[in-house]
Amino acid sequence: MKYFTAWTSIPCQNTKCVDNEPSVRCCFDPIISIKYGETAPPISLCKKCAEMIESDDKITTIPICMPLSASNNVVCQNKGCESSKRLAIGICFSEDCIRSHQYVPLRLCQECLDALHSVNCKEHINHRSMKCAWGTELERDIVEAIVKLLKETSANLEGSETEGKRPKWLRQLEGGHTLGRDIDKMADERRALSRFGIWLLATICPPVPEARPVLSLIKNLNIS
Questions:
Q1: pLDDT of 24 above 90
Q2: What is the pLDDT of residues 150-196, one digit of tens each?
């Protein structure tokens, strides 16, 4: 599986910058933007240029939120994390949290995410995974998405023959070959979409007593 950075840092916009390094700070002063970059504000600056401009022009620059790392890091990145469950379930983008992390958005476990934001009056910009779709405003959209994802391969699934404890349809979604026999001709893209649908169903649509009847919800979706 490939992993990509969320975005790319803008190169330093100072026209006299020699190194042309990625920008780490910015300035919204129009005079500074015209003087050093001949551009409309804000002007993005590398560390060296930002320090030079702050010293020469007596202005303050603002740190830029840096791109997330390309690694598939799923462990809490809070240096003081003492949780027994360090699986990262959210990302914080606000300066208070990322200042000590070189302004790179911080992946946090549930305990750290709650602890770091329980004492802050100012709302932080953060992204959290959905725990359960039932009873939320996204319930209808999630169910519709799952149905459409499963329909990507449902027409090509064969029978209910089992091999051990694994149904044939499940083996078809997992891969195209088993015991040397070609069991399906589905495209990998379609298979991956249906796998994602099953993951959504199992992860954020668990069976709960208070859940609405799914059948009646699906009938109202009018999915073609």
A1: yes
A2: 877 666 555 445 445 555 555 555 555 444 445 445 566 777 777 78
Using the Cα atoms of residue 10, residue 74, residue 170 and residue 178 in order, give the sign of their dihedral: positive
Q: Is pLDDT at 76 greater than 80 in this prediction?
A: yes
Q: Is residue 210 domain-resident?
A: yes
d(CA 156, CA 161): 14
138 and 211 co-located in one domain: yes
Q: Distance between CA 18 and CA 46 in Å, rounded?
A: 11
Is the pTM higher than 0.90? The answer reads no
CA–CA dist 134, 186 (Å, integer): 31
State pLDDT tens for residues 192-217. 777 788 878 877 887 777 655 555 55
Domain span including residue 52: 7-64
How many domains does the structure of the chain reveal?
Answer: 3
Answer for the pair 9, 21: CB distance below 8 angstroms, yes or no: no
Q: Does residue 218 share a domain with residue 135?
A: yes
Cα(107)–Cα(129) distance, rounded to whole angstroms? 12
